[in-house]
């Protein structure tokens, strides 16, 4: 392909993302402040990477000043992270704030403001307090929705005058899918009803926090961050298309529709009833979801999900799982990131952009995460010690290009955020795969170094043009 250049609109976000748990470390964490992820990591040493994990993470809590300077050096307009619910409060029932942790956020926001970086804050990025899982069964209990709203009240009271863009959840579908639908992760127990109950309570919590934010009269916006898996059928044959529709319904529309349209897809409700999935919801819940929709959605886009019609019949005596309706399909010859096992296909951006425009009323959205995790990245270090991550530059350029084209074609795409600003701890495998513009050198006191992609990203900001 010959070189093309495309302008980056002046208001287009050029940012990078992270989360509290994946960067901050446990420094200053008090007894009883474990998140669900902390509890899991404490009992399962195999998810740590060579002994490195969330205990120190990237040590952001101690090194944020250095990191904010690096955000500026990378040309970031925005930085997205979360506030860790499990650490922000000392008592989840009374919502008593942990002053020490809260004042660290005051300083972080001061530092970002002084360096011209816009904060985007998310209230939950997998940081459910472990005790709420133990005591109430986590998001399975409506009580936890109330406690989350109380936590949000405290967060908004403290920071909503200075943070303009808020998000309720990051990828609210993930934890319960791994834990209850697929039973792959601690405390693993297959129950489609529990899975749907968590989905519903997170949708309800989204509506209630949106209502709370609006009632506060704050100047900013309130959105949520979802991970729609762009789903493509193996063929255009009706049975394959049906498989893709079903996947989309159970994994994407279950959150997209309530957040944007204020309702569950009727087809989903019907299927859940047909399979006798015993989840609880009230008319009042549905009215709240209808009345309080988000202002924008951040979308985490990594790879396409390809499916085909299932080849085996489901046994009625096994618990219902949405995989009753689809099977994964591996496109022969697809381009892969071998470290993560994910296909690389930038047209997912065009696909979701079209959908946001045509199916969701040109709803405002942005890429909240997109990126490439690479194992053993130190092998790409040059003689001066800089990681030459040309593969990451190509990956970003190809996806960003699609976002810019979509914007030109009238999709309400607000920007692009890379996952991740620095290398960080993955819930899946700690530091195994590196995603950052900034290297965290674990063997050398977590020294920070800009990778080649960091310099390239800065150029995007300076020139406001992308060439590929
Ligand atoms: C997203 C999460 C991030 C991050 C990223 C990379 O789903 O929001 O928190 O971890 O995926 O994935 P992984 O860490 O599993 O490689």
Automatic annotation (TrEMBL):
GO terms for molecular function: hydrolase activity. It comes from the Bacteria. InterPro entries: GH (IPR017853), Glyco_hydro_1 (IPR001360). Keywords: Hydrolase. Belongs to the glycosyl hydrolase 1 family. This is Glycoside hydrolase family 1 protein.
């Amino acid at each position: 392909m010959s070189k093309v250049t495309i302008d980056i609109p002046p208001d287009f976000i050029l940012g990078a993302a992270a989360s509290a748990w994946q960067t901050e470390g446990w420094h200053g964490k008090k007894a009883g402040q474990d998140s669900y992820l902390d509890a899991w990591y404490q009992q399962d040493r195999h998810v740590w990477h060579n002994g490195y994990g969330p205990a120190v993470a990237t040590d952001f809590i101690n090194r944020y000043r250095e990191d904010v300077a690096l955000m500026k050096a990378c040309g970031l307009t925005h930085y997205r992270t979360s506030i860790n619910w499990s650490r922000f409060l000392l008592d989840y029932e009374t919502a008593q704030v942990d002053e020490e942790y809260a004042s660290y956020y005051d300083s972080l926001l001061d530092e970002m403001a002084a360096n011209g970086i816009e904060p985007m804050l998310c209230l939950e990025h997998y940081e459910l307090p472990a005790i709420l899982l133990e005591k109430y069964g986590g998001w399975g209990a409506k009580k936890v929705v109330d406690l989350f709203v109380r936590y949000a009240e405290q967060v908004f009271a403290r920071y909503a005058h200075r943070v303009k863009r808020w998000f309720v959840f990051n990828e609210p579908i993930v934890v319960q899918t791994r834990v209850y639908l697929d039973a792959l992760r601690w405390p693993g127990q297959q129950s489609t009803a529990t899975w749907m109950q968590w989905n519903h309570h997170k949708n309800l919590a989204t509506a209630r926090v949106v209502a709370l934010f609006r009632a506060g009269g704050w100047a900013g916006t309130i959105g949520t961050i979802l991970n729609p898996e762009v789903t493509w059928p193996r063929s255009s044959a009706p049975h394959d298309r049906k498989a893709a529709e079903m996947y989309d319904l159970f994994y994407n529309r279950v959150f997209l529709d309530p957040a944007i349209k204020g309702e569950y897809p009727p087809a989903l409700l019907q299927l859940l009833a047909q399979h006798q999935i015993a989840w609880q919801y009230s008319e009042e819940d549905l009215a709240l979801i209808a009345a309080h929709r988000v202002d924008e959605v951040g979308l985490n886009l990594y790879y396409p999900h390809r499916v085909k019609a299932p080849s085996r019949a489901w046994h009625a005596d096994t618990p219902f799982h949405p995989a009753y309706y689809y099977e994964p399909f591996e496109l022969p010859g697809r381009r892969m990131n071998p470290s993560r096992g994910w296909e690389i296909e930038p047209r997912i951006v065009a696909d979701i952009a079209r959908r946001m425009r045509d199916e969701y009323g040109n709803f405002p959205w942005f890429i909240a995460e997109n990126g490439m995790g690479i194992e053993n990245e130190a092998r790409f270090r040059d003689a001066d010690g800089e990681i030459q991550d040309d593969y990451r530059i190509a990956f970003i350029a190809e996806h960003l290009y699609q976002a810019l084209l979509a914007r030109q074609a009238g999709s309400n795409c607000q920007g692009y955020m890379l996952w991740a600003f620095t290398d960080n701890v993955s819930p899946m495998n700690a530091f195994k795969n590196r995603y950052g513009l900034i290297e965290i050198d674990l063997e050398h006191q977590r020294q920070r170094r800009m990778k080649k992609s960091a310099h390239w990203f800065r150029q995007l900001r300076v020139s406001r043009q992308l060439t590929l």
